[in-house]
Amino acid sequence: MGFADRLKKGLSRSREALNEIFYFGGEVDEDFWEDLEDTLVMGDLGAEVAMNVTDDLREQAARENLRTDRQLRRALSERLAAEFCPVGRDPFDDLPSCVLFVGINGAGKTTTVGKLANDARERSIPVVIGGADTFRAAAIEQLDVWAERAGVRLVTRDRGADPASVCYDVLEAAERDGSELVLIDTAGRLHTSSDLMRELAKVVSVTRRRSPMPVSVVLVIDATTGQNGLSQAKEFDDALDLDGVIVTKLDGTAKGGIAVAISHTLQLPILRIGVGESIEDFQRFDAQAFCRALVGEE
Ligand SMILES: Nc1nc2c(ncn2[C@@H]2O[C@H](COP(=O)(O)OP(=O)(O)OP(=O)(O)O)[C@@H](O)[C@H]2O)c(=O)[nH]1
Q1: Residue 104 in marked binding region
Q2: Range list of β-strands (E), the chain
Q3: Out of 98, 176, 231, 255, which residue is the most buried by the measure of CB atoms under 10 Å away?
């Protein structure tokens, strides 16, 4: 299955919900707009975005006399795409660059680091991985498997070591080897655990101070988390001042709207998306293509 099909399949829940209201058979009446707003809220877009988008679309439909399913879907997908914060500096393209990956347990950080390392190597970018998840021995082993798969060097320390020291080590190794991209995996943690968030803030500030390259902090978020994803992202942003977001598991049962809610509310760009477990299952984010898949516009 191609990338676009995977994304379409993954976002089918949102699309099916929209299909129900788009089969209105004629009148675009008050019920239609109410149902649209409810459906967008249910699709994890959040109340604020759902209301703004519905109000704008309603005005546009009246102004431009949009009536058909096709016209309305197109206008909706364009309006939703406009909600995304545009990408300014892309930390995986604008080199040299050091990126720290943060997020809750199981969000897909390690997998994402593996995919990005592989992508960089394929583009002949000298890249090194830092394994700063020294909390779990299995995490280091897992990252090692990804590093090997991608054919990229891993710098880490034994379980229990200070994660900030791994950041020092990997930056030193990058300087020595001439690596232009440094990808650092950190231990997963709940955004509600203030001790662990403080520890992570220290890792970030040490890395920012030590790094001769620009440092970006990227939140990896599992799209299937739903609306809780927005509060997660808010907490991480408050504590670490995020630079961007990667949304994973969009091939699963995600509703997808959380990507819109986070990007708009926190004004953070979506840098990449994950659509599967294997090394090539990820993509640059294209807001238009994403919204077409979300809305079911042909
Ligand atoms: N379907 C799907 N699964 C994914 C994707 N990205 C990651 N996964 C799976 O999600 C699970 C967790 O991924 P990890 O990369 O280990 O997550 P992590 O954030 O590093 O987890 P911790 O080390 O516990 O913090 C694994 O089973 C991955 O295969 C994706 O885009 N799609």
Answers
A1: yes
A2: 97-102, 127-132, 153-156, 181-186, 215-222, 244-248, 270-274, 282-284
A3: 98
